[in-house]
Amino acid sequence: MEKSLQILGIGNAIVDILARVDESFITDHNLIKKAMTLIEADRSAQLYADMPAGREQSGGSVANSVAGIAMLGGRAGYIGKVADDQLGRVFRHDMTANGVTFNSAPLLDAEPTANCLVAITPDAERTMSTYLGACSALSMADIDQSQIADSEIIYIEGYLWDREHAKQACRVAMEMAHAAGTKVAFTLSDAFCVDRYRDDFSQLIDGPIDILFANRDELCSLYQTDDFAEALSMIEGRVTVAAITCGDEGAIILAGGERHLVEALPTAVIDTTGAGDLFAAGFLYGAMNGFDLAKAGQLGTACASLTISQVGPRPEAAALQELLASFA
Amino acid sequence: MEKSLQILGIGNAIVDILARVDESFITDHNLIKKAMTLIEADRSAQLYADMPAGREQSGGSVANSVAGIAMLGGRAGYIGKVADDQLGRVFRHDMTANGVTFNSAPLLDAEPTANCLVAITPDAERTMSTYLGACSALSMADIDQSQIADSEIIYIEGYLWDREHAKQACRVAMEMAHAAGTKVAFTLSDAFCVDRYRDDFSQLIDGPIDILFANRDELCSLYQTDDFAEALSMIEGRVTVAAITCGDEGAIILAGGERHLVEALPTAVIDTTGAGDLFAAGFLYGAMNGFDLAKAGQLGTACASLTISQVGPRPEAAALQELLASFA
């Protein structure tokens, strides 16, 4: 019998605040360029005060991916924690409006909905400073066993390892998934995140993870090498499918002893925010809807190209659907 | 002695929620296309629930204008009411980050910060549904007499007539302005708003208003005629300067018995939100910084063109500054 959801994502539910900055903003504030750094409420308020005027858009890595899958027409769900506040309502609205099943109860009378200050430098790279707020409250109570069993794949982000309760909830979710014949997909999220949880992530790769997403930096961080070819050979065969993105050089899909190279589409790069998330959206949508792995990878890089050609981590549904139609 | 501010705006402080919709969204929800309609909290929640996923950006008509003036390098201030909530902090941040002096105290423990649901149809026109929230609390207490006296021009939006206390505060602000040698600029805001307050606006034109902004529809609504030429001749000589925008046909500046026709710049229209607001920004900035009226009008239409070539009512500061540099 067909399962209700193709993909059930679990992640940090975040609203992005995006603004263009000069390079000096990164250096003056001691930010780690292109990375995601966790910050506390005080630091977030201070950094925001120094940022230029911005635009707000729902974000969160796996949230962007499942929103993309739903906009492409896939059956997607999401588990994540927002507060019962204005940004929480914006996040919930956007997920629901995109067609994502999002049942997680809001956090009441506690920390506000998470925000991510996204500083976009003139080279179109994004540097992210995240205040986790309500996301820190994600726990076992938010994991719905029947929903996991009724999903083809659960998709979890490495960022969740930054909070103990969320990490434990993810471990249990992975166990529930395998008990129910649900596949487990995972993203390494960020090279510094890999650095924080290298042993855990390595064990997950040798354990419950079936499908791994990573970019070149994250994979090199995982194996503590600067040699990408070496890192590729180390991940080969460790998971059923490894989908490795390589920026403007496209992506490499490793599966069943084969390597599929997928080219990136040339595009004017405006803002790289969400590129990897929408690659995962296109790849997972394709893989769940009858595309072979190479073609799924091509849909992934096409979705990523569309994303970086505009501001923010979520392109418009009409643009994604037009792109998908070109694959028919 | 030079006054501290060139322009002090008074308006409804609003955060926009912008989303692309089909034409059917407008008809199905009985919206008045291209107009601004006031709605209550329940209707706003219902309409939002039916809207596609969106993007958020600080808005408000006169707020957009003063933000534009400040981004161009002018000395601008703003009086408007937000709540002490997430969207209120976003609005305040953006004004301050743009360089606008914004001292209005937030509203505590009452209605939330205003939002405007902006439905953008495929023809790039915007249809706006505004929940005024905290804006309804704008009153005399927010008017700073010394700040008005220390401004060259105060700029007030007709939208404020929708709330009794705000309207009275504006009338007093206009009196304070004239007593201090401060000029009064006013925008008719919206053709339906003109319809609601035609007599008041006519009296203001014959009274304290020195500089009037309107578009063709608003001016025709004011004089209850479909004949734009007739409406133009009726406003001529009634105010010191009338700046009338005509969409893709540019603008007409009436002053001292002369008419200056200003062409619009051809551009790919993405979203018309904020076009009139940024015309006013360019025109007022130019007029306050040594441009003759025709050239100020040209800066106005150039700022409007820039605005409609992107999503949302506030283009980026760097783009506005680049545009201004081309006028040197």
What does this structure look like?
Two copies of one chain form a homodimer. With 328 residues, chain A is of the alpha/beta class. Chain A has one domain: Ribokinase (UDP-N-acetylmuramoyl-L-alanine:D-glutamate ligase), CATH 3.40.1190. Helices cover 40% and strands 22% of the residues of chain A. Chain A contains 13 helices and 14 strands. Chain A has a nine-stranded mixed beta sheet with strand order 6-5-1-9-10-11-12-13-14. Chain A has a five-stranded mixed beta sheet with strand order 3-8-7-2-4. In chain A, helix 11 runs antiparallel to helix 12. Chain A starts with a strand and ends with a helix. The model of chain A has no long low-confidence stretch (mean pLDDT 97).
Topology at a glance:
The structure is a homodimer of 328-residue chains.
Chain A: E1 5-10, E2 14-20, H1 23-28, E3 36-38, H2 41-50, E4 55-59, H3 61-72, E5 76-79, H4 86-97, E6 101-102, E7 114-120, E8 126-131, H5 145-149, E9 151-157, H6 164-179, E10 183-187, H7 191-196, H8 198-206, E11 211-215, H9 216-222, H10 228-235, E12 241-245, E13 251-255, E14 258-262, H11 275-288, H12 293-308, H13 317-325
